[in-house]
Amino acid sequence: MLASYPRLVVDLSAIAENTGKVVVACTSAEIRIAGVTKGICAHGSIVRAMVDAGCPELADSRMTNIRSLRSMGFGLPLLLLRIPMLSEIPEVVEWADCSLVSMPETLQALDRECRCTGKEHQVIVMADMGDLREGFWPDDQQEALCTVLQGLERVRCRGVGVNFGCFGGVLPARKKLLELTCIAEEFERFLGYPLETVSGGSSSSLALLERNEIPEGVNHLRIGEAILLGTDVTSSRDIPWLRQRTMFLAGEVVELFRKPSVPQGVRGKDAFGRIPVFEDRGNRLRAIVAVGRQDVPIEGIEPERPGVTILGGSSDHLVLDVEEASPGVIMGEALRFFPDYGAMLALATSPYVGFEMV
Ligand SMILES: *Cc1c(COP(=O)(O)O)cnc(C)c1O
């Protein structure tokens, strides 16, 4: 049994509201979404809220999560987001309906597995439009991939897709999505059948949707962050038509003392090999919260209470300046912190952090 703190408290009605709004906005542009669950480790009640709010497909980057999504029995198609490891092909074919793929070897391995097991699988072939994470480089590798696709027996090309922002920080742009629709047409000509899906990216592509700049032909987006947090970290913005602060970390105060603001003594490096810098602000009231870097990157959380600032943290201790906290901090109380995407991801996967739905 987990202690009650730290825990991640999730507002399911906010998740449902965000899902509904994203589905409506996308549907009006003839775009279907896959709701991305990896940010909350495919947690059952949060996924349920997304499904109930109209999410028509679920996607995750980890096979462990895809398996648990399958066991939840929603009956929705499941999309594997991370290009598969050759060593996980049997699980991919068994549990996922579709996967994002970039390598010819992976396509062949998927087809071989399908032939052995009598199953079928779909793929969305990823094109790299400049962000330099996954995807084939259109000028070089497209024809070879199409040739492989043509020879497959039980793997069908559902479509093509692109990812932005995740490695190179390249933002989605209408021009790049137009290129993707051209690639889709070339695939169709080569393969001789229409593609069902042209997947134009993730939450960051919603900025294009808002400006009506998603080209006709792009009919699919993979949306996680916008639903879960109402934000778009690539453009560092709150999405104005969605709800933010959909969840918070609750951590308990375990020490509350007034102390000097500069360490006393001969100083070396901190627990993480860094040399911290301190400003002398005299004696200040400080609180320690029982949460640490083992649970969350502390740069990724924001205190809810006005006047509370994060001074730093070690593996298990979060050190706060609470001199100006309003209301004042009390020993033993739980303080709230809003996570960004990276913090949410870490909190959701820390075995030391519980979940609570409200
Ligand atoms: C995580 C992921 C997404 C979802 O991204 P968000 O920014 O959370 O919307 C989409 N596509 C791929 C390939 C991913 O790995």
Polypeptide structure, described:
This protein is an alpha/beta fold and 358 residues long. Helix content is 30%, strand content 25%. The chain is built from ten helices and 18 strands. The strands form three sheets. Strands 1, 12, 13, 14, 15, 16, 17 and 18 form an eight-stranded mixed sheet that branches. It has an eight-stranded parallel sheet with strand order 8-7-6-5-4-3-2-9. The protein is elongated. The mean pLDDT is 96. The structure holds pyridoxal-5'-phosphate (PLP). The site of pyridoxal-5'-phosphate (PLP) has 13 residues, from strand 9 and helix 9. The site of pyridoxal-5'-phosphate has 13 residues, from strand 9 and helix 9.
What is the H/E string?
A: EHEHEHEHEHEHEHEHEHEEEEEEEEHE
The radius of gyration is 23 Å
Structural class: alpha/beta
* Unreliably modeled segments: none
Distance between termini? 20 Å
Strand composition percent? 15-25%
Number of helices: 10
Helix content: 25-40%
Write down the overall geometry.
Answer: elongated
Largest sheet: 8 strands, mixed
E-strand count: 18
**Ligands bound to this protein structure:** pyridoxal-5'-phosphate
> Could you report the average pLDDT, rounded to the nearest whole number?
96
